[in-house]
Amino acid sequence: MADNQTEKQKSTGTYRQLLKEWRRAWTEKVNEKFRECHMAARIDHRSYKEQGIDLIPTIHEGYEVRAMEKKGIKTVIGELNRAIRQFNQMFISLKESIQWMKTAYEEMKDELDRRQNPTLLESLQDYYDKKTQGRPLLPNFYAEMKRRGRISPTYKSLQNSSIILRPIR
What we know:
Layout: H1 2-36, H2 48-51, H3 62-70, H4 76-116, H5 120-131, H6 141-148, H7 151-160
């Protein structure tokens, strides 16, 4: 009995390896055809876990479930897959929101740091802005210098004179 069980496990393991090989070969053939047709689409035979994707996979529905769903008959598997797709979409949105918040935080932190340690040009611009409050607006000196490409020679000469020690961002 134990030998029969071991043989069954070995053959099951061999079968699984064979299935994986077939799936890999099929993936290569399909992707090759996609490339020949200049299509951007690609398929991958690996599971989400093997690909490093943090989503819940849907359950294979099969032709019977597909036919029932197409006729408007709700199935347990269909309902479960709809819930999984909805959850995955919310998860993706949440991850994007977290990434956006991290980026915004870093940008705010950099701007605060820049404001606490301004360059000479930024200090002069702030001084000019305070002096001209309520008066007709003149072009932004710092932005104009940067646009014309004159900021670099001016900056270098001030840096050579040891007036500016911090680089312009």
